[in-house]
Automatic annotation (TrEMBL):
The protein's name in its UniProt record: NAD(P)-dependent oxidoreductase
Database matches in SUPFAM superfamilies: NAD(P)-binding Rossmann-fold domains (SSF51735)
The organism of origin for this protein: Mucilaginibacter segetis
Taxonomy of the source species: Bacteria, Pseudomonadati, Bacteroidota, Sphingobacteriia, Sphingobacteriales
Database matches in InterPro entries: Epimerase_deHydtase, Lipid_A_modif_metabolic_enz, NAD(P)-bd_dom_sf
PANTHER family in alphabetical order: BIFUNCTIONAL POLYMYXIN RESISTANCE PROTEIN ARNA (PTHR43245), BLL5923 PROTEIN (PTHR43245:SF58)
Domain NAD-dependent epimerase/dehydratase: 5-224
Length: 327
């Protein structure tokens, strides 16, 4: 009999790739989605659907016991929300509820997809984020993920692994895609004019390490990137090379962008929605140094990223073209 894994956030960008990787590893996949989730793109995958009640620990425990999940990869999360309390509810409370249920039901491993936003970027261009860097999240999103980690660590009997990915890109992503689409249109906008060290991880590499983490040493936390750092222009430069396109490059004043983002945020919240580009997102985009050390993920998880930014963008842009997201 195959081992069974519950993947939450299955309808999302990362979730799709987690499912593919789990199936490749001969796991039986239960995809946790909501009644409102868009799941057309999952229809050809050999998976079962489930609709966990993240607000109910007893119901979650029953579900885990009845469906006999061996493992859980918890990727459901809010990357955009209208308030800090919404982030905390979805990212921290729901994570705790599922983890508590997993502990009670005795799952073999609970892998939590956290975020490098729990640490926050370094303010200096020198140095890199390591295991010893004290968490200093500067967004409500990062704070909610850190709270989730703290709640998880309070569960003494749970066998967990926490992964903290930096910015994730790849087929089906809709966030970094906003920038790539501008490049395709010949527009190359930047916020402010500072030197930056950015880090990225290709979604298929993240999926590989997430599945590896199911069989990893317990109770540890790993920062995840492709191991490199990139200056702020490299993503656009590679994209222009791949699309054989030219752009007009310009730098918008930070304060101007903040005002526009604040207005956009207010309009979205009046409509009851979370803005895609908001003040928090801006602060992440203009942060100085996201370079992070992944040596421990290499040695303990056997995580050897297969895609640097050029290889990952080649795959990604080909997918966007094939699927008519880009011309
Ligand atoms: N993308 C990145 O750059 C990045 C970087 C670091 C960490 N992460 C983490 O990776 C995970 C996946 O992110 P993603 O980029 O794949 O985001 P995404 O495409 O927005 O997917 C989020 C998933 O979470 C589910 N979800 C959101 N709110 C929920 C709720 N209240 N109840 C149940 N399910 C809910 C969504 O379900 P619906 O489809 O029903 O909305 C969706 O399946 C998140 O935990 C995120 O924090 C992402």
């Amino acid at each position: 009999m195959k081992d069974r894994v519950l993947i939450t956030g299955a309808s999302g960008f990362v979730g799709y790739h987690l499912i593919e990787e789990a199936l490749k590893n001969n796991l039986e996949v239960y995809a946790a989605v909501r009644k409102s989730s868009r799941i057309e793109h999952l229809k050809n995958l050999d998976i079962q659907y489930t609709y966990p009640a993240f607000n109910d620990i007893a119901a979650l425990t029953r579900e885990i016991k009845e469906k006999k999940y061996d493992y859980i990869i918890h990727a459901a999360g809010a990357t955009k929300a209208r308030s800090a309390s919404e982030y905390n509810l979805i990212n921290a409370t729901y994570t705790f509820n599922l983890a508590k249920a997993a502990e009670e039901a005795g799952v073999k491993k609970f892998v939590f997809i956290s975020s490098l936003a729990t640490i926050g970027a370094l303010k200096s261009i020198n140095g890199l984020i390591t295991d010893n860097t004290a968490p200093a999240p500067f967004t409500a999103y990062g704070k909610s993920k850190l709270l989730a980690e703290e709640k998880l660590k309070s569960l003494t009997k749970l066998n967990y692994t926490i992964l903290r990915p930096t910015a994730v890109y790849g087929p089906r992503d809709t966030d970094i895609f906003i920038f790539l689409k501008q490049i395709a249109k010949g527009i190359e906008p930047y916020i402010g004019n500072i030197q930056q060290k950015l880090s990225f991880v290709f979604v298929k590499d993240l999926a590989v390490v997430s599945v590896k983490a199911l069989f990893a040493p317990e109770k540890s936390t790993y920062n995840i990137s492709d191991g490199n750092f990139y200056d702020r222009y490299e993503m656009a430069d590679i994209t222009k090379f791949l699309l054989k396109s030219k752009t007009i490059k310009f730098h918008l004043p930070v304060n101007f962008v903040k005002i526009v983002a604040a207005i956009a945020g207010n309009i979205s919240s009046l409509r009851g929605k979370a803005a895609v580009v908001n003040l928090e997102k801006i602060s992440e985009l203009i942060a100085v140094n996201w370079h992070c050390d992944i040596e421990r993920a290499k040695s303990e998880l056997g995580f050897y990223p297969q895609y640097n930014l050029k290889a990952g963008l080649t795959d990604t842009i080909q997918w966007y073209k094939e699927n008519k997201w880009l011309k």
